Amino acid sequence: TQKTLAMIKPDGMSGNYTNRIKNVILESGFRIVKETIVQLDEDTAASFYAEHSTKSFFSNLIKYITSGPVLVMVLEKENAVADWRDLIGPTDAHKAKVTRPHSIRAMCGLDSEKNCIHGSDSTQSAQREISFFFKEVSTGAAVTEHDEL
Ligand code: GTP
Ligand code: MG
């Protein structure tokens, strides 16, 4: 099996989409193996999204992703990385509503920024992002772990 990182973004949290998203996750055959709710500060957010630091939308992205708590989850199933990207749909939630009406971003996203959910884009990104949030040796951040929901 494979693991990937999912994150319900602040708009997904404030819009109360958590339970609906978790239902889709479980119905689609993923196991939620770790989860934690965190409030990202600007430095942590900038580090998480470092690949976008030169993009024109970067400062807006950092404002958005730090605007409230996020729910970070490690998902596990066969082919988890590609299957999770497929399930969340395209980056632009506008487009998702047209081309992928059953995707998660079609359900809870708004536009190309406020798209309510994150998914690692490769197995390499998944490894980096999982260890970004879930260090084996905790350095102070609260981490909740469990095997079943
Ligand atoms: P993530 O799963 O969050 O990484 O989304 P993605 O892989 O589908 O898109 P990408 O990594 O290219 O962009 C990261 C995030 O930046 C997106 O999910 C959006 O929230 C935001 N973003 C991407 N493109 C734009 C844009 O053109 N304008 C604005 N304002 N935000 C953008
Ligand atoms: Mg991305």
How would you explain this protein's 3D organization?
It catalyses: a 2'-deoxyribonucleoside 5'-diphosphate + ATP = a 2'-deoxyribonucleoside 5'-triphosphate + ADP; a ribonucleoside 5'-diphosphate + ATP = a ribonucleoside 5'-triphosphate + ADP. Belongs to the NDK family. Residues 1-141 form the Nucleoside diphosphate kinase-like domain. GO terms for molecular function: ATP binding; nucleoside diphosphate kinase activity. The active site is at residue 118. This protein has 149 residues and is an alpha+beta fold. The chain has a single domain (2-40, 70-145), classed as Alpha-Beta Plaits (2-Layer Sandwich), CATH 3.30.70.141. It is built from eight helices and five strands; from the N terminus they run βααβααβαααβαβ. It has helices spanning 10-14, 18-27, 42-48, 58-65, 80-88, 93-99, 104-108, 123-133; strands at 2-8, 31-38, 70-77, 117-119, 144-145. A five-stranded antiparallel β-sheet has the order 4-1-3-2-5, sandwiched between helices. The longest helix is centred in the C-terminal third of the chain and has 11 residues, at 123-133. It is globular, with a radius of gyration of 14 Å. Mean pLDDT is 93; it is low at 137-141. Guanosine-5'-triphosphate binds at residues 52, 57, 60-61, 91, 112-113, 115, 118-119, 121. The site of guanosine-5'-triphosphate has 11 residues, from helix 4 and strand 4.
